[in-house]
Amino acid sequence: xxxxxxxxxxxxxxxxxxxxxxxxxxxxxxxxxxxxxxxxxxxxxxxxxxxxxxxxxxxxxxxxxxxxxxxxxxxxxxxxxxxxxxxxxxxxxxxxxxxxxxxxxxxxxxxxxxxxxxxxxxxxxxxxxxxxxxxxxxxxxxxxxxxxxxxxxxxxxxxxxxxxxxxxxxxxxxxxxxxxxxxxxxxxxxxxxxxxxxxxxxxxxxxxxxx
Length: 211
Ligand SMILES: C[S@@+](CC[C@H](N)C(=O)[O-])C[C@H]1O[C@@H](n2cnc3c(N)ncnc32)[C@H](O)[C@@H]1O
Hints:
- With 211 residues, the chain is an alpha/beta fold.
- The chain has a single domain (2-203), classed as Rossmann fold.
- The chain has seven helices and seven strands.
- It has a seven-stranded mixed sheet with strand order 3-2-1-4-5-7-6, with helices on both faces.
- Strand 2 (53-59), helix 3 and strand 3 (80-84) form a beta-alpha-beta unit.
- The chain is globular and about 40 Å long.
- S-adenosylmethionine binds at residues 11, 15, 38-39, 41, 44, 59-62, 65, 86-88, 103-105, 108-109.
């Protein structure tokens, strides 16, 4: 009940907050052509998609998330097509999309290296993955708390991890990190373990070889 019904609805509200919107705008800026978005959720990025995007291929396992996203898709001039349920196994051909987007999703996908490997596979050489994620904080005090709370977080938040080093994971998949900004979501100090952000862009090299 919690995970299938209430969690997607709660995330739609929490991640739809005003304070997150500006970070989303940064994450989608510059996307163009065909884009695969993993962990599409309730489509909170849809109203912010730049006009140069031609099609979005959405991957989302939650039926409630897809239902909540329906209105946003209808209101958008950019077509959104669902192409599967699992970012770890994309139903897409090699080098078939121009760009990829992941917001607050690399924390949750169980085998994140595999999902990033899939993005690397389906992106054309020179294509970019744009990401906005929360993850392992740079300051040791917050990082320690993230490690401590991680198991509980996974249990109550649908498998979400607090302590993934997002830039390292993106780099290990073979992407060259061309933009990276760490930031904090605004909020009380006690929420610091949840609020450390990674905003960036990873580029698939023209001559790609996974590391
Ligand atoms: C915290 S929510 C973020 C949703 C959305 N990206 C956003 O920014 O609001 C994480 C999303 O990842 C989805 N997810 C979980 N496992 C997944 C998987 N294996 N492949 C793709 N998406 C997954 C969840 O269903 C959920 O919608």
